[in-house]
Amino acid sequence: MATTTKSTVKKNGSATANAKSGATTKAAAKPAASTNDLIGQVTTTLKKTYKVNLNDRKKRVALKVYHALREKMGLDLQTQVRKNNGTFDWQKWNTKVFVLLFGKPEAPKYSAPVMAKIASYFYDTISEEPTQAVADLVEFNRQSLERRNAIQEQTEDEDLEGDDEEFDDSVLDDEDDLDAEAESDLDEGDDEDDLDDDEDFEDEEDDELE
Length: 210
Prior knowledge:
By secondary structure, this protein is mainly alpha-helical. The chain has seven helices and two strands.
């Protein structure tokens, strides 16, 4: 009959524990999907589902820098042209001249740092340090967008006020028609006392309208 010693049991227990620990380690060591893999998965899914590609961070920054440089140089050119009693054609600048120099918005010829470097050459408000120069132009673009949105909201509010005025005019016209009908009814046979009462009523209406 075999005898099991405490030492043998201890060794077997340690071996079992080590085996479990090894299995857990292998499971934990399973390589997770990299960030690039996840980005690729998201891009592929969106492309397959919606038939579109979202711009990445680099393209978005380049687009903001592109628009900022175009507007900043355009405003400067407009000022200089006006000083010479000329007229600055924004359409020509945006769609022809600037495109010839820097490419189209969706496909700029140069990277954001290069366009920012060009801006820093002409304007002291743009840093000469590339990263900061890009940040300066992005901020310029943000402020410009805020101004345009504010102008658009103001225009929409003015349009709404105009609609309100037209509505009020139509209401007044309807009331005038009702007054005319009332006067016509009175002319057909109401006595003087009723006429006086109706005139008081009309005065009250006029006071309310005022």
